[in-house]
TrEMBL record:
Gene3D superfamilies: 3.90.660.50, FAD/NAD(P)-binding domain. InterPro entries: FAD/NAD-bd_sf (IPR036188). This is NAD(P)/FAD-dependent oxidoreductase. Pfam families: NAD_binding_8.
Amino acid sequence: MTTAVVIGSGPNGLSAAVRLAHAGLDVTVLEAADHPGGGTRTSELTLPGVLHDECSGFHPTGAASPYFAALGLERHGLRWLWPEVDLAHPLDDGRAALATRGLRHIDSLGADAHRWRRMFTPLIARFDDLVADVFRPLVHVPRHPVTLGRFGIQALAPAMWQTRRFSDEPARALFAGVAAHAFGRLDTPLSSAVGLLLTAAAHAFGWPVAEGGSAAISRALTAELAAHGGRVRTGIRVESLGGLRDLTGAAPDVVLLDTAPAGALTIAGDALPVRVRRALQRYSYGPAAHKVDFAIEGDIPWVNRDCGRAGTVHLGGSAREIADVEAATACGRMPRRPFVLLGQQYVADPSRSDSTESGAAINPVYAYAHVPHGYDGGAGDATETVIAQIERFAPGFRERILATSVRGPADLEAHNSNYVGGDIAAGAQTAIQTVFRPRPAVNPYALGIPGVYLCSSATPPGAGVHGMSGYHAAEAALDWLRRR
């Protein structure tokens, strides 16, 4: 029987494993941590009974993923839950821009509502067609060339150029905040791509959470793998390809690495062709996250009450302010008021909360600030910065904090070695690297070693919990097996 080993059990590693198992291979997933999931894990980080997502917390690309949909993961307990408002972006003047499925609450954009509708209605109407092409490798025959071409023309523009379409700050800030998910400058070519795709996803599919935490995604994929004879072994760190024989009892026919390029360099080592090794050594990593999880009593006291209905809240002020702080972090400077992404997953999923003996709700709050790559300016200082940014739009938040859990860039990398320097986006989102990640190649998953492939978010279509990088890498491995 043909055998496969997948190193790493993030959503891409598990998706690759499931695809190989469906094809009849005997699949083993090896995971260094004690629990599978990579970026899709959930833990009681602050207080007992209060559930926090350890990395990924909102899943627009998961709900839109063609592969997840084809697997029918609801059979294994995965259930998407939506807040009333998918995304809110408060401003200092008390207004807040809102994004929801079906363009509801578009009146929050004021005079720009019609411009926003005109910008996104074509993308929403053809979103399934767009995803069918965008979630594939760069080199492919487009299934929907007109839709892809229209998106590509818009995506080429810098994000800040797109904000010029709007006359007032709510729409400008809302788009800039979504574009900032790329962890990079907003004044460079292709910096619109993430903003366009994720905003269209918000209106087409929403930004749901997984009931019970993001770990539900890992559990569903693991169950699907087990149903087809595959297995996951945890607590096993792979140091080299040569050591796989000792770990699994025999040399596998194919190996897939759900690792950052740095991990592939370590594991594959001198077996990599010189050209591939040099390309992976040149791979650049982007700004980092400084993550703070809070357990709070009650809800966040937002100035704009609509923010209390949102699953995700962007804290960054105006579009110009967001662009300036993103440029600073990309250049290695810590801004005074960094962009903060805040999650209120409990708004859609109350099962994550607990209560005191008196019955008062204890709710989990998820937040991370964009900070420079490898930032080590002091965990306490950065945490105070995150709290101050929340207080800016919700005075009195500090008094509601019952407990905190902090992971700076070094802690994130120690917890998951794929987060090099605290980069949770799996690589810098420069224009060149966005197109040619992890290296310029017809087959970006191949590592130049027969049967060995990279399947992480460092490969197309990039970051996000969608499993498509793993799926395409598995397809590349299966194609090699058919041809050998």
